[in-house]
TrEMBL record:
Cited PROSITE patterns: B302_SPRY, ZF_BBOX, ZF_RING_1, ZF_RING_2
Domain RING-type: 16-57
Composition skew (Low complexity), residue ranges: 356-368
Upper lineage: Eukaryota, Metazoa, Chordata, Craniata, Vertebrata
Stretches the record annotates as Disordered: 317-373
UniProt entry keywords in alphabetical sequence: Ligase, Metal-binding, Zinc, Zinc-finger
Protein known as: TRIM7 ligase
Extent of Pro residues compositional bias: 339-352
Alphabetized CDD domains for the sequence: Bbox2_TRIM4-like (cd19760), RING-HC_TRIM7-like_C-IV (cd16594)
Any Pfam family hit: zf-B_box
Domain B box-type: 95-136
Gene: Trim7_1
Start and end residues of each B30.2/SPRY domain: 289-494
Keyword S-adenosyl-L-methionine: no
Record keyword Acyltransferase present: no
Natural source organism: Pteruthius melanotis
Amino acid sequence: MDAPSARDELPGEASCPICLEYFRDPVSIHCGHHFCRSCIERCWEWPTAGFACPRCRDAAPERSLRPSRELARVLEIARRLSRGEAVGTGEEEEEEEEGCQRHREPLEVFCKEDGALLCAICRESRAHRAHTVLPVPEVVQEYQGQIQAQLQTLKDDRDKLLEFREAEMRRNWEYLEKTEVERQRILSQFQGLRLSLEEHSRHLLARLGDLERDIGKVQEENVTSLTKEISRLDTHIQELEEKCRQPARTFLQVMRDNGLEQPSPLPPLPLPELEKKILHFREENILLEETLRSFQGGIHGTPSGAVTVTLDPSTAHPQLLVAPDGSSVSWESAREPPGDGPGPGTDPPGDGPGPGTDAPGDGPGTDPSVLGREGVTAGRRCWDVQVAPAGSWALGVARETPGSGGETPGSAEWELWSMGLCQGQFWALTSLERIPLFPIHAPRRVRVALDYERGQVAFFDADKRSLIFAFPAASFKGQSVHPWFLVWGEGSRI
């Protein structure tokens, strides 16, 4: 293969398969392929089934990134070839300099106070004897070090802006997808009652159109701003790189006249106001759907899909007392748990949820909870639960995972979507986290609404028909979902 052909192929071999640009901080993975570190880390940010190679799709159970220093050196050669530079020993050609015009001696040192090149005779003169005088190579190295540090800062800022722009575009596409979902939901809900609710439907669609325009406007403004800032940084980087390639004399003259420009701060990221608007819009739609189902159920307000839940005593915690007909459950402080008594029974009743405490929603097998007998695998279901004002309580649904057998409610084999009251504070509870809810008036009856196909779990004040909380859409993965109840503390009863 001749030299020109090799030079044409080398940049292609030194390019990342993901971003198609020269490798930046190249690393190799388990299958031997190479990528930019930032590119492969973004690909593996949310792995679903192992860590797959984007090129050959070979997957590994663990993430492995190994720096490739040899490839980094080859990459530098490729960059130089692409710029048409000669590849030799790497030693820079020294410029031909004129000597001191006064003494005809070579200019070997640099006076930092006066910013002037001096010969050996000028250095010993009275005018420069008290000044800081350094060899020219040392001063050049010092100033180049300062520029390299600023170059690195500017490049880091540029990379951050590139990431911000990518995240901004991805987020706004997600917003647009969510608005499209809401559009379809609105149209389907108003299909049967179009004549009587047509005005309300037009109002909601108009609001949704305003939200889409807001998203498009914010996206255009943010992407334009980030693009301009990236362009400015690219120009500044190019100017500094050109300065570094100038002869020492010219370089020092420029540095003396201009110095280093301080980098401007990065523009702040926009607040997620659009996300809040979409969430608020979705909550309004959930409440509307529940109202329509209640209306379609008849004049007594019984919603479609309403079921009667019967508690399963075999799944109850030892300190819970389930009524013989399975219609209620209460906390019994006199009932001692078996063995060492794990769970909330070992702590004072009423302790609030917090890290390191056995509060509602804590570790496996510790929750004083009970399941409903019948599981749900399809359709829409809802049930009303009457709660006592005393003690702590929580209610919702639990998804049975494969192999659990359903023996232990609240264990690691059950995934929870619930809300409840503890020490006067309302919480949204899952198997992994607790989300504090805004202060609300304690409801007398809570309605749990489950839409299996949509993966939607929502909670309403059954008397006021107002939404309390709705979880983001989830996937129940075709598994059985059971009603789930928790009571804890003196006087607590559901």
